[in-house]
Amino acid sequence: MASLSRRVSLIVPALIEVRNLVKQFRGVRAVDGASFSIRKGTCFGLLGPNGAGKTTTIEILEGITNPTSGELLYQGEPLGRRFRDEAGIMFQSTSLQEHITVREALKLFARLYPRSVPLKDLVASCSLEDILDRDTHKLSGGQRQRLLLAIALVNDPEVLFLDEPTTGLDPQARRRLWDLVRDIKQRGKTVLLTTHYMEEAYVLCDEIAIMDHGRIIAEGSPKALLAEHFHDVVLDLPAEDFHPQREDPELMVLHCGDRVELLSSDVNDTIRRLIDAGVPLGRLQIRERTLDDLFLELTGKELRK
Amino acid sequence: MSLSRLLAIFWARNKEFFRDRSALAWNVLFPVLIVAGFAFAFSDEGVDLYKVGVLGEPEVAEAQFRDLQYVDFIAVDDLQSGLRKVQRHQLDLLMEPGSNRYWVNETSPRGHILERALQGSTGQPLVRQAVQGEPIRYVDWLLPGVLSMNMMFSALYGVGYVIVRYRKNGVLKRLKATPLSAFEFLSAQVISRLWVILLVTAGVFFGMSLFIDFPMEGSYLDLLLIFTLGAMSVISLGLVIASRSASEEFASGLLNLVSWPMMFLSGVWFSLEGLHPLVQKIALIFPLTHLIDAARAVMIDGAGLLQVADRLVVLAAMTAVFLFIGALAFRWE
User: Fold this and answer.
1) How large is the average pLDDT for residues B19-36?
2) What is the pLDDT of residues A33-55, one digit of tens each?
3) Quick one: A209 and A248 in the same domain?
4) Beta-carbon separation of A99 and B15 below 8 A
5) What pLDDT does B10 receive?
6) Which of A38, A290, B199, B225 is most buried, taking the most CB atoms under 10 A from its CB?
7) A222-229 and A2-11 helices, crossing angle to 10°
8) Does the pLDDT of residue A3 top 60, yes or no?
9) Residues A71, A91: one domain?
10) Order of strands across the sheet that contains A233-238
């Protein structure tokens, strides 16, 4: 899978190319030689724990922060006016001018670009019909994120930056935003996403890069990365059910609070051993390894910490 | 440079101001309340000191009055400006010790008393020159100062504080990620605030003319030009203050540091003539001093642009310097 992914990346040209990116703040090297490329029409996820350097990386790409060194190419050329006109950005935390309505905010940003999407289409694509005349400072979390997404789309961008777009949203609002991002992908746009949610990355991203201590420590499609790093599955049991009558050194047991997880590359054999040890299996669940597991394995940290 | 982008930001800023009812009300009510309050408080001349203008050395004139107390001797540069002040009752008497001449307003009771005191005190024969003219009330004198001070607050806080708030809450970051240039953004802020200040000042000016019969001797166009240039100078000063900081507390402290000395030392409330020469020199570094002087000259004395040209040149120069520093030092983040 990994080699297939590499072969595909050779065929589809890179829209954005990042080479040896370094950002040095006073006493801290926030980005330490990161390199990756984003192919046209894909959704690329940049993942990492807090302080890994992903927001600094994305802000350098957005033109908000200047890099200390490194090379950034958009369509084979250094980032410039064309990139600014063709990029759409949804920041993690920004505010809008006060006392303006959703409609006015969209019109305002549309006028800042040389070309813009008709307001009607934008409103429909981000489901803003009901809140068009509402003050932008009187929106719910989900409505606000949809407006910020619409503003990011106002110039019909080739590449869309989404920096933790669903942080703080309830599950329903999050899924609604996922649907919007899928629509955007279907229209051939390139998306760069950072997120704390592995499920989000798994659902939306064609490729991910995991960042830690300012470096990219793994890159590829979620499935290829999982296949590359894991050859086992997880057997999950409530801790209260797991009282083996005898120790079995062959069982790889992880205690996770009120659950117990057993890593197994041969499920039949593991189940047989559990039965032999007298463990009741009525509430046994078997799952594949997830990006959360991969993240933990690679960084030693849980993503949300 | 795109006019469309500049106008988009200009209108957004205007909407922000006019829809913020409390800020709008404050901008209009603040000067009205101050002028109304002072008009009431000083309705029966609250000045305790007698003022004698002196053409020449004040000490020489002081010696002629011997033991007389509660008289303030003020140096006057030339006969014309001294006479104008006697006409307006801003000076109770004007004297020239070298020629033993003095001028007194025949309609001024205070001038009459001083004249008697002078005649009783000095042994030398004096030549009397009569002057006539209606008194200037304190409120008439105060009004140009309060209008200008309101412009100063509106400019400093409306530009300085707002840009710092934009920087803190991420509005600037959001705008930086668009094709909008810093020049377009700053120009929109300056033009929007200028338009708001002129509109509010015009509203207060004409609104107050319905209640207080204050003098407007000069040309309205001249006054508009003075107010425009004065507002530009303080708006540009606001840009300098807002150029880097992302802390509203720091910006607020800086704005106070600039606005309070201006409020007290630019001649809003009292004439600077009696103050220590050093303080008078310091006052000249404030744009508000020049703005108020020029506005008073036009409104009270009917001066034309030529007579206040020196003030206008200073205001224009300050505007250019502040704009240059403010634009050069500006950071989106």
Assistant:
1) 83
2) 999 999 998 999 998 888 888 88
3) no
4) yes
5) 93
6) A38
7) 150
8) no
9) yes
10) A252-256, A259-264, A233-238, A285-288
Does B179 contact chain A (CB < 8 Å)? yes
User: Taking the CA atoms of chain B, what radius of gyration do you get in angstroms?
Assistant: 23
**Is A149 in contact with A177 (CB distance < 8 Å)?**
yes
CATH number (domain holding residue A196)? 3.40.50.300
Do A215 and A274 lie in one domain? The reply is no
Handedness of CA A178, A182, A188, A191 (dihedral sign): positive
A contacts of B15 (beta carbons < 8 Å): 97, 99-100, 104
Torsional sign, CA A299, A300, A303, A304: negative
Residue with tokens 């806080």: B157
ipTM above 0.95, yes or no: no
Angstrom distance (rounded) from CA A175 to CA A197:
12
pLDDT value of position A82: 85
Q: Quick check: A242 and A260 in contact, CB under 8 A?
A: yes
Q: Quote the CA–CA distance of A216 and A194 in Å, as a whole number.
A: 13
Encoded amino acid at B171, one letter: V
Residue A65 lies in a domain: yes
- Check CB contact under 8 Å for B177 and A62: yes
Q: Tell whether A60 and A201 lie within a shared domain.
A: yes
Same domain, A210 and A284: no
* Tokens of residue A204, six digits: 């939306």
Range of the structural domain that residue A274 is part of: 234-288
| Pairwise CB contact (< 8 Å): A112 & B13 | no
Instruction: Please report, for chain B, the start and end positions of each structural domain, with discontinuous segments joined by +.
Output: 3-41+138-329, 50-131
Q: How far is B22 from chain A (nearest CA, A)?
A: 12
B331 touches chain A (CB under 8 A): no
Pick from B172, B140, B148, B149: nearest CA to B242: B172
Q: What is the pLDDT of residues A172-200, one digit of tens each?
A: 888 888 888 898 888 889 999 998 788 88
Chain-chain contact of A94 with B171 (C-beta, under 8 angstroms): yes
Distances (CA, A) of B65 to B27, B51, B59, B123: 47, 13, 10, 10
Structure tokens at A13: 């040209």
A151 and A56 in one domain?
yes
Q: Tell whether A112 is covered by a domain.
A: yes
Tell me which CATH code domain B50-131 carries. Answer: 3.40.190
* Residue A220 domain flag: yes
The mean pLDDT value of chain B amounts to 87
How many distinct structural domains can be found in chain A?
Answer: 2
Is residue A135 packed enough to be buried (19+ CB in 10 Å), middle (13-18) or exposed (0-12)? middle
Domain-located, residue A295: no
Structure tokens at B293: 């002087």
* Shared-domain flag, residues A111 and A40: yes
Half-sphere exposure (CA, 13 Å, Cβ side) for A11? 7
